[in-house]
Amino acid sequence: MKDKVNVLFMCGYGLGSSAVAEMLVKKGLAAEGINADVKHTAVGELNSLMDWADVVAISKKLSEGLRFKEDTHMVEVVNIMDGAGIAKQIGKIVDAHYPYARKEVL
């Protein structure tokens, strides 16, 4: 059994906004005691990373019309600067589906 959850951030081009969100959320996940691998990419690269991702963080507008695996968990990103808030949303998914990825926070 793996001890991490894989989180994928997607934006239109895989550069600015998803890279900023990745950095901020990594800090938030560490504060939440969640062991995660976090990557960012462009929407066009979705298919190459779908088997890797447990959680996909994406804006609602970008997700419209995209197809995700049935067991992919989604986090709707409203404010990319709210790393702590996004991490809390991911934390709820972790608790429900990937409890092995949560570690004790000292």
UniProtKB/TrEMBL annotation:
SUPFAM superfamilies referenced in this protein's UniProt entry, alphabetically: PTS system IIB component-like (SSF52794)
Keywords per UniProt: Sugar transport, Transferase, Transport
Any single GO BP term: phosphoenolpyruvate-dependent sugar phosphotransferase system
GO molecular function terms attached to this record: protein-N(PI)-phosphohistidine-sugar phosphotransferase activity
Chain ranges of the PTS EIIB type-2 domain: 5-98
Gene3D superfamilies xref list: 3.40.50.2300
InterPro entries: PTS_EIIB-like_sf, PTS_EIIB_2, PTS_EIIB_2/3
Pfam families: PTS_IIB
Protein name: PTS sugar transporter IIB
Organism (species): Clostridium porci
